[in-house]
């Protein structure tokens, strides 16, 4: 069973490896990731967050039991037009912060069948995808946040814990 890895676990700081086999096992992982995301009320989840060291992200729709799996996702265009929004993360419960992201992106990725897909994305979905791809590169929203809006005390405590472990 997969479970959510929480900050400051160093697993979250690893760079995930490219998916190379689009097989049944990968589909199973995607399904399990979706179930965890749904249970924990998230709208996006990246492999490293459940100790899967592969470039896989899952994006769910808020109001429907549907989801999309993006494998080896790569942003090929970031709009210069940016917007600041409040973000949270299943790996950093109770912590929120303001992050500036491009409003529009162009995305290249593979689906579970190994088909190469290109998509233009805007709005909340674009924000979530940028957040999740950061996870694949060991980057967390707290690294980019201009301001922590909620949970600063908790974050300080966790950072202390990290320093003591190093
Ligand atoms: Co996250």
What does this protein look like?
- By secondary structure, the protein is α+β, with helices and mostly antiparallel strands.
- It has four helices and eight strands, in the order αβββββββααβα.
- A five-stranded antiparallel beta sheet has the order 1-2-3-6-7. It has a three-stranded antiparallel beta sheet with strand order 4-5-8.
- It is globular.
Structural class: alpha+beta
Helix percentage: 25-40%
Taken from the alpha-carbon principal axes, the silhouette is: globular
Order of helices and strands: HEEEEEEEHHEH
Could you tell me the radius of gyration in angstroms?
A: 15 Å
Strand order of the largest sheet: 1-2-3-6-7
Sheet having the most strands: 5 strands, antiparallel
Low-pLDDT residue intervals, each spanning 5 or more residues: none
Strand content: 25-35%
Number of strands: 8
> How many individual helices?
4
> Averaged pLDDT, please?
95
- Our measurement of the CA-to-CA distance between the termini, rounded to an integer number of angstroms, reads 28 Å
Bound small molecules, by name, code or SMILES, are: cobalt (II) ion
Characteristic key phrases:
3-stranded antiparallel β-sheet; binds cobalt (II) ion; 5-stranded antiparallel β-sheet; globular; 8 strands; alpha+beta; 166 residues
């Amino acid at each position: 069973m997969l479970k959510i890895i929480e900050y400051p676990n160093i697993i979250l700081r690893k760079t995930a490896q490219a998916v190379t086999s689009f097989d049944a096992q990968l589909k199973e992982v995607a399904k399990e990731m979706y179930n965890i995301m749904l249970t924990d009320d998230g709208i996006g989840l990246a492999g490293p967050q459940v100790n899967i060291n592969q470039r896989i992200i899952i994006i769910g729709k808020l109001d429907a039991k549907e989801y999309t799996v993006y494998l080896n996702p790569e942003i090929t265009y970031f709009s210069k037009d940016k917007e600041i929004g409040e973000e949270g993360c299943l790996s950093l419960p109770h912590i929120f912060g303001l992050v500036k992201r491009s409003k529009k992106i162009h995305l290249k990725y593979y689906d579970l069948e190994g088909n190469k897909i290109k998509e233009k994305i805007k709005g909340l979905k674009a924000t979530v995808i940028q957040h999740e791809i950061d996870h694949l590169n060991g980057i967390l929203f707290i690294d980019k946040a201009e301001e922590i809006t909620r949970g600063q005390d908790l974050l300080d405590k966790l950072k202390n814990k990290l320093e003591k472990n190093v």
